[in-house]
TrEMBL record:
Pfam families: Aldose_epim. GO terms for molecular function: aldose 1-epimerase activity; carbohydrate binding. Residues 183-202 are annotated as: Disordered. Gene3D superfamilies: 2.70.98.10. This is Aldose 1-epimerase. InterPro entries: Aldose_1/G6P_1-epimerase, Gal_mutarotase_sf_dom, GH-type_carb-bd, YihR-like.
Length: 303
């Protein structure tokens, strides 16, 4: 018996929503509403290109040269992005996850992260994907330190929102006051900057055009429930992304380096608990002691 390279495919549905989550990496491979895609997808027998829908644990984005210091110890991660001399997007993207609970509208996946090169810690992870006919997709990621020493921890995820047409002709809204400038290796080059008067000011809906963005936003505006929002609107359709207050950062990426068939067809909106290069700088990195738990949620809804 043969199976797709991304492993078992866990399908869930509610109302007009349908999603597929993969055994490999607990990746969100598909999400549709009324049979129309809300995220960029890939074939089940293809590794996720450009981190499409992947979970990024125990750090999102990049670690400069793969080096960081924590608890007085120096660590060297494998350089998983050699072209930029960086470690990128954590350690669980390609690992198998196990379905611990399954319902027609919900799946709960688990993974035990044991010590790896540059990350000598142990975490028990869960990722819960739930669909609701009215409110769309909600995802909750939880980490428990089941090891003997305090671990540095952060997480993120990497969906690309789509309305079925190139994003150049779409309106993009990101309710955030500051963005993080980066150098040519995508490493932060200074503190967060005010978006006022810059092309990165997306606090009101504005046509994207040919603007290239690969930056983290912070100073996020939140509603009464503590959620911050981003939106993509075009072609008579709209899709919105929310992230809870466990995520003070939202990476926005205009998909400029994706394979040609996907390039600028979707907009990356990536909730993060720490900024790029967080393990190195320590900014917003969670110090997760033995027995401690941390969790965060995000979601996607068709409008």
């Amino acid at each position: 018996m043969t199976e797709p390279v991304t492993g078992e495919q866990f399908e869930i549905a509610a109302g007009e929503y349908r999603a597929v989550v993969t055994e490999g990496g607990a990746g969100l491979r598909e999400l549709t509403f009324e049979d129309r895609p809300l995220i960029l997808s890939h074939d089940a027998d293809e590794p996720a290109p450009a981190a499409l829908g992947q979970l990024l644990i125990p750090w999102p984005n990049r670690v400069d040269r793969g080096r960081y210091v924590f608890g007085g110890r120096e660590h060297q991660l494998d350089l998983s992005e050699p072209e930029n001399d960086c470690a990128i997007h954590g350690l669980v993207r390609w690992s198998p996850w196990t379905a611990a609970e399954r319902e027609p509208h919900r799946v709960l996946l688990t993974h035990r992260l044991l010590a790896a090169a540059g990350y000598p810690y142990r975490l028990d992870l869960t990722a819960e994907f739930t669909l609701d006919a009215r409110t769309g997709l909600a995802v909750r990621v939880t980490a428990v330190n089941t090891g003997t020493r305090t671990a540095p921890y952060a997480h993120g995820t990497h969906p690309y929102l789509t309305v079925g047409e190139p994003i150049d002709g779409c309106e993009v809204t990101v309710a955030a006051d500051r963005y993080l400038p980066v150098d040519d290796r995508k490493i932060p080059s200074g503190p967060p900057q005010d978006v006022t008067g810059t092309p990165y000011d997306r606090r009101e809906p504005a046509l994207l055009g040919d603007l290239r963005i690969d930056n983290a936003y912070t100073g996020l505006h939140r509603d009464a429930a503590g959620r911050a929002w981003g939106r993509l609107r075009g072609g008579g359709r709209a899709v919105s992304f929310w992230l809870d207050d466990a995520h003070p950062w939202l990476e926005v990426y205009t998909a400029d380096d994706l394979p040609p068939a996907l390039r600028r067809r979707g907009l990356g909106m990536e909730p993060m608990t720490c900024p790029p290069n967080g393990l190195t700088t320590g900014i917003d990195v969670i110090e997760l002691g033995p027995g401690d738990t941390t969790t965060g949620s995000w979601g996607i809804i068709a409008e």
